[in-house]
Amino acid sequence: MRGSRGLLGAALAAVLALAACGADQDPSPEPLPRPSAQAAGALTVWLMDSSQPQSLVDEVNARFAGDYPNVDVRVTYQQWGEIQQLLAAALETDTAPDVVEIGNNLTARYADQGLLTDLTGEVERLRVDGMLPGLSATGAWAGRRYGVPYYGGTQVLVYRADQLAAAGLEPPRTLAEVDRAAAALAEANGAPPEYSAFWFPGHAWQAAMPFVWGHGGEVAVQAEDGSWAGTLDGAQSRAGLAQLAALAKAHSAAPADADAAGNIEAFMDGRVGMMVDSWWVPGALDRDAMRGKVGVVPVPGLAAEESAPVPMGGSDLAVPARSANPGLAVEWIRLLTGERSQVRLARSGVIPNQEAAFVGHEGSAFLQVADQAALGGRAMPVSPRWPDVQAAGVLETMLEDILTGRATVEEASARASAAITATLNG
Q: What pLDDT score does 26 carry?
């Protein structure tokens, strides 16, 4: 697992440091009142469409009914394109749902607005401490727990196994070996203009983070007084950006103003030797004429025994502050986020919220590599204002400016850090 234990420890330390923010508050609040077996009424749950198989929800509801036979669970499936508007309207009403699935980059925002129930007293019952640190970090804000990790997604290094083999190459084990492999692939394939030994579209900021973090850099850091400072202009962050920029400029034909949407087509067309992409992409590629030609490893780090930290996306489950049934909501969440359900969720192809559920990926070499990467996964800065940084395209603009030559790494990273600082402290 190439350094995953050390990365796991580092990520856990970051989570504990985050939890220390707001330490003047009571660190051990009382748990919510436990509902009695005679509880009656309705429990309204909002989940995102396609986040989970229906059979899993049915099983959780059946188990819940065994404990609370007089409670009617009403699950509604929402669409990602509409959920923010729906939540903004619903969370401030007395008819708010009891359980909501939230993109984990938004949990701190809703918590800061007072729209979510404080679940700090439920941490032990929900077994949050046993969940992946890169996921659990997103549900904590100001020393409190508001979101429970549901599932995650991450980044891996995908490569054309047939191209590497033809060039006499092994999969790269370090970031330096990624450079050398790209140069060898370009030479072996004649370096035509349309070929990318290392494909990197400029707006694919998730694929850039392993280079920043792999070199020891940070996006932003929070001081003890709660203020933030953007740090992409730090020496280590710049070293990672410089390596990525040199790699992309020498070996990528991907557009500097595009995201990862075109990755799969380019890879299947034979125009890509290596790329950093989402955990599910290798499985989507490895079929028909591509069967057996797809390889994957965790994104390498600086040393052969470690992989680079990777960003963890995914969802949290939360209880709205105006839920009429917070105790019942916690019991339902406990069933869906517990090991039994998470093993089943893993079998559907996603990354579960805990290492114990990785057994659901047995038989899938691609997903097992994703699990290794997830052990070293990290959250982007946990702040109510981080979604504003994303909405402004700060990282995309920085990368595009670097790749097009409109700015040097030093200039672009300085502007990005200033924008991140101003936004997070706004």
A: 53
